[in-house]
Amino acid sequence: KAAIIRNRLHSLTELRNNQSMFSPSFKKRDFVGIATAGEVVSVFILCERDGKVVNQYNYMFQTPVSDATQVTEWVIRFLYINALPVPNEIVTTINFSVRTHTKVDIKTSSGRELKFVVPLRGELKDRLERAQDNAAYQLKLEGVKKTRREDALASLAKLLNLSKIPKRIEAFDISNLGATNIVGASIVFIDGQPAK
Question: For residue range 141-163, what is the model confidence (pLDDT) as tens digits?
Answer without folding.
Answer: 888 888 888 888 888 888 889 89
